[in-house]
Amino acid sequence: MKESLLRFKDKQKYLIFDYETCNLNLMSKDNKPWQLAFLLAQGNKILDKADYILSWPDINVSKDAARITGFSYAKYNKRKSCPLKALDHFEKYLYDKKILTVGHNILGFDLYIHNIHRKLCGKTSDYSYIGNTLDTVCLGRAIKAGIKRQKGTDLLSWQYRLLNHRQKGLKVTLKQCCKDYGINYNPEKLHDALYDIEKNNEVFQKMLWEVEV
Q1: Is residue 200 within 8 Å of residue 102, measured between CB atoms?
Q2: How far apart are CA 181 and CA 177, in angstroms?
Q3: Within the chain, how many helices (H) and strands (E) appear?
Q4: Where are the beta strands (DSSP E) in the chain?
């Protein structure tokens, strides 16, 4: 029934998050998350928001990552804080089954970075929240390519198929999504985790009216 769609559930809470990392190689031992930002939203209300710079003793940010994200060791050393405190705050919402988790390419990247964050804090892997995940890269591809979720199809498996969907000219970067929905953005601030989650929250709220989830 249409009433079961998320767009009509104004009491639903969403956790939108993003990591910034030392590089893009998920297999690299040097690829530590150095920024974690997240917000808890319910409709137009922001219930909580956090922006953590994660302190590690041997961080090594690549030149490309530093250029893209605006990372500097001076700013990092001034703002860095306890990564376990950040993780505990974040996971208070992440593992709440009543909250849906949202992010841009989180199924392809950030959920693995979260696991690295856990391991660096001495915790074991725990992907139990993944079934409550909505990836705006996948939703964007579904909307642009006209790919609907068939009745009875698992939401997560549908998104993973979309994650691997490639189509010439189909762009779903956060910058492109902002352009598509007429959302004002500053290109110089994109790839700052806090700014990205704020913009992605706006994008996601628009997407809900174009895709049936």
Answers
A1: yes
A2: 6
A3: 8, 5
A4: 13-21, 33-42, 45-53, 99-103, 133-135
Share of the chain above pLDDT 70, in %: 99
pTM greater than the 0.90 cutoff: yes
Question: What residues contact residue 76 under an 8 Å CB cut-off, 6+ apart?
Answer: 34, 53, 59
Q: Which helix (H) or strand (E) holds 195?
A: helix 193-207
| The dihedral formed by the CA atoms of 14, 37, 129 and 212, expressed in degrees to the nearest 10 | 40
- Both tokens of residue 137? 């890269």
Average pLDDT, the chain: 96
HSE-CB at 175 with a 13 A cutoff on CA atoms is: 7
d(CA 187, CA 185): 6
Identify the band that residue 152 occupies on the pLDDT scale cut at 50, 70 and 90.
confident
* Domains identified in the chain and CATH numbers: 14-207 (3.30.420.10)
d(CA 65, CA 56): 17
| Residue 21 contacts residue 65 (beta carbons within 8 Å) | yes
Closest by CA to 207, choosing from 18, 5, 39, 24, is 5
pLDDT of residue 3 exceeding 90: no
